[in-house]
Design goal:
- The complex is a heterodimer of chains A (266) and B (272).
- With 266 residues, chain A is mostly helical.
- Chain A has one domain (2-261).
- Chain A has helices at residues 2-14, 17-42, 48-54, 59-73, 75-90, 93-98, 103-132, 139-169, 174-187, 199-205, 209-221, 230-261.
- Chain A starts with a helix and ends in a 5-residue tail after the last helix.
- Chain B has one domain (2-267).
- The longest helix of chain B has 32 residues, at 66-97.
- Chain B is globular and about 60 Å long.
- The chains are: A mainly alpha (266), B mainly alpha (272).
Chain lengths: 266, 272
């Protein structure tokens, strides 16, 4: 059943090739803004200050890794917010709910399909970014990063699940989700080192899986190993069950509530 | 006749305004977008250089204060996108809602429909600017000189002619696309990337530099920045070039729009 949802979403997305091109272009342009701005301010691509605070001094590499992981991290959230809203607007959500399948399965399928589609798009953006900014990427390096990336995807799915319950209760949480997505850029050190932020923000940032994901992958790209990021790895692994648990409990509560007050109708 | 058109214009603008305000959280989200861009600019600058000013940027553009540089670019881009978005999204929103044919069949000129939507966005753009400028001064230490900034208004208006022209041309094309959403996203992203809002165009690869200078956005941004920093005397070249580009786009937009209106009478609009 989950695979059927994934197949439906893939078919809908890839039906319009211009939509795929547009998504890749949106992805690359957004990245260029900040990388070129950083380079214009730096007068080059290397920052000694960045290296001192993060272990990676090459700004395009730093930004590219952070940006691609950020995009994928907000993907499940977007799936719940926009995917469910789209079904609510079309009037097909209630029909899906009545189908002989569990709602959690339907929603998980939706989030998984968006995560996979965005991962594919971001793989293209990553390749384009690496070519454009002359970033050396090797197959062994990618394979080495793969376990961390897979763990990150599982964590992102759990984190996004929190929004599944919210979207059923509230009519239009798109703007709220957008603000939250932008806030993640600040709270996880995507385009700048977290060292410039106040201590309380640095402490808060540890609660987001993205912070640890970008730290692990950047360290691996800078030549380090998993032993150098033990703390981030432990945080990431601990956040996976935590967010899945919170998301599930919130969803069950939202499901019970909507049986009484109904779904956010359109 | 003129009074009737004005009433229709007002009606479209009010409708558009009401739709926007029906989801008030969008207003907050839009405002947050400005803080997001300028905040990122400030933190990237500090995170990479540890300084509030950049010598490298000074050499490239004449601006050492990268926050002021980004704010000016962001404002010109925000204002410029008003026209492109006003023209194309007004068509797309109504196409998706299935009300475009009704709106076009209403007893008003088609341009009135577009301008009504643009009017709302211009108003919003001014509301945002009125909010941003004092907030950026307070939060990000933006160096704001009202005299220098007011010098840029005529230059911005000059660029507006070209930006309206581009919006009209895009609206003419959008009418004939089956799924215009991706086309508009691609167009907006091209404008975004080539506007020089966050970085000087000269940092781009040469091919993209040429492309950026053939659109009305980057020449407007460059002329505005130069006039604010150095005055009119030092900006003659930028203003002359902007004048040429703006007139060309104004003419192109008018002709494309007239052609699309004529075509619409023959082949109809794309229905949803």
């Amino acid at each position: 059943m989950i695979l059927a949802v994934v197949e439906k979403e893939f078919r809908m997305f890839f039906r319009y090739p211009l939509r795929v091109i547009s998504s890749i272009l949106v992805g690359i342009v957004f990245l260029l803004q900040f990388v070129y701005f950083g380079q214009a301010v730096l007068g080059g691509r290397y920052s000694a200050l960045l290296e001192a605070s993060t272990g990676m001094g090459d700004y395009p590499t730093y930004a590219l890794i952070g940006y691609v992981l950020w995009w994928v991290s907000v993907s499940p959230m977007e799936a719940y917010v926009w995917g469910v809203r789209r079904e609510l607007q079309r009037g097909t959500f209630e029909t899906n709910v009545l189908s002989p399948s569990r709602l959690t399965g339907l929603l998980f399928g939706l989030a998984l399909s968006w995560l996979l589609m965005d991962s594919a798009l971001m793989a293209v953006v990553f390749a384009l970014g690496a070519a454009l900014f002359d970033i050396p990427v090797t197959i062994p390096l990618l394979l080495k990063s793969l376990p961390a990336i897979i763990a990150s995807l599982v964590a992102f799915l759990g984190f996004g699940f929190i929004f599944a319950g919210l979207v059923m209760l509230l009519k239009n949480i798109g703007p709220f989700a957008q603000i939250f997505e932008f806030a993640m850029l600040f709270l996880s050190g995507v385009f700048f080192p977290l060292a410039v932020m106040p201590d309380w923000v640095i402490s808060l940032s540890k609660l987001f899986p993205l912070t640890h994901s970008v730290n692990i992958v950047r360290t691996l790209f800078a030549g380090g190993g998993y032993s150098d990021v033990g703390s981030s790895l432990l945080w990431l692994l601990a956040l996976i069950p935590l967010y899945w648990g919170i998301g599930y409990l919130l969803f069950r509560w939202a499901e019970r509530t909507t049986r009484v007050i109904g779904y956010g109708g359109y | 006749m003129a009074a009737t058109e004005l009433r229709a214009l007002w009606g479209v603008a009010v409708k558009s305004w009401r739709i926007f305000l029906s989801y008030k959280l969008w207003f907050i989200s839009d405002i947050a977008l400005g803080f997001f861009f300028v905040g990122q600019a400030l933190l990237i600058g500090i995170g990479l250089t540890g300084e509030r000013n950049s010598e490298a940027l000074q050499e490239l553009t004449g601006y050492s204060d990268y926050v002021t540089f980004a704010v000016l670019g962001f404002m010109v881009l925000g204002f410029g996108l008003t026209f492109l978005s006003g023209f194309v999204w007004s068509v797309v929103d109504e196409l998706y809602a299935g009300t475009l044919e009704y709106s076009f069949a209403a007893p008003m000129r088609r341009i009135t429909f577009f301008l009504g939507n643009v009017l709302t966005r211009i108003l919003l753009s001014f509301v945002y600017m009125a909010f941003y400028v004092p907030a950026f001064v307070l939060l990000f230490g933006l160096s704001f000189d009202p005299v220098a900034f007011s010098r840029a208004i005529p230059v911005l208006l000059l660029g507006t002619v070209g930006m309206i022209g581009m919006g009209m041309a895009a609206a003419g094309i959008v009418l004939y696309l089956r799924d215009p959403g991706p086309f508009i996203s691609i167009l907006e992203m091209l404008v975004f990337a080539l506007s020089g809002a966050m970085y000087p165009v000269s940092i781009l690869p040469r091919g993209l530099q040429y492309l950026a200078r053939t659109l009305p956005y980057a020449p407007t941004t460059e002329a505005v920045r130069k006039v604010v920093a150095y005055g009119y005397g030092a900006s003659t070249n930028e203003i002359t070039y902007l004048l040429l580009v703006s007139l060309a786009y104004g003419l192109l937009g008018y002709l494309t729009y007239k052609w699309s209106e004529k075509q619409a009478r023959v082949v109809g609009l794309k229905a949803y």
